[in-house]
Specification:
His_Pase_superF_clade-1; about 30% helix; 7 helices; fructose-2,6-bisphosphate 2-phosphatase activity; His_PPase_superfam; Phosphoglycerate_Mutase
């Protein structure tokens, strides 16, 4: 028997923007990261420099491309830009806050059940999940086809994308169960067993003493 195939996916949330700071819904709107933010991400950059990533992906939105440029500047030309890694499109709610929307009955329904409702002119849960699942499927397929037994992939993306990926790997979990701060990341370790990729662990990056449960 050959060695077990392993895959580590590092998911990093972009640096904070002005709309993020103001707690405004930011989906497909193309905002830059705030000045000085990357100074707070030096520890993450140092941690990621330890890994020989096989592939680096980033969302095509400015805040992610700026973050990837800071984190992997010397490998930026190797970075694959993929619009499937965008945040959910919030449609008419882009740029609005909870306080501005809290009396809107459509918004209240969406807060209670985001998979059954969607922002007006925005993206449905199925559309959002479908593009991310398609992306992940290609990552899994590529890792499985490689002769290397341990593949490592870096993905610079958005909070909603990371939360959805984590919830999809943890049965009985909701997308709301996970918190990921701007400029932080998680490492997902998987093994290929019985015809599929199984998640063994999820840990914070930079490495913390206590692993996420």
């Amino acid at each position: 028997m050959g060695a077990t195939q392993r895959l580590d996916i590092f998911l990093v949330r972009h640096g904070i923007t002005k709309w993020n700071q103001d707690k405004r819904y930011l989906g497909h709107s193309d905002e830059s990261v705030l000045p000085g933010v990357f100074e707070e991400m030096s520890e993450l950059k140092q941690e990621l420099s330890k890994y020989p990533f096989d592939t680096i992906f980033t969302s095509d939105l400015k805040r992610c491309r700026e973050t990837s440029d800071y984190l992997v500047g010397n490998k930026q030309n190797e970075c694959i830009v993929d619009n499937r890694l965008r945040e959910l499109n919030f449609g008419e709610w882009e740029g609005k806050t909870y306080e501005e929307l809290k009396t809107n009955h459509v918004y209240r329904n969406w807060i209670d059940d985001w998979e059954s409702y969607n922002p007006p002119t925005g993206e449905t849960a199925n559309q959002f999940k479908s593009r991310i699942n398609e992306f992940l499927g290609e990552v899994y397929e590529k890792a499985q086809s490689k002769t290397c037994n341990h593949n490592q992939v870096l993905v610079i993306t958005h909070g909603g994308v990371i939360k959805y990926i984590l919830s999809s790997l943890k049965e009985s979990s909701s997308i709301w169960d996970f918190k990921i701060k701007h400029g932080n990341g998680v490492r997902i370790s998987l093994e290929y067993q019985e015809g599929g990729w199984l998640c063994n662990s999820i840990s914070e990056v930079p490495t913390q003493e206590k692993e996420k449960q």
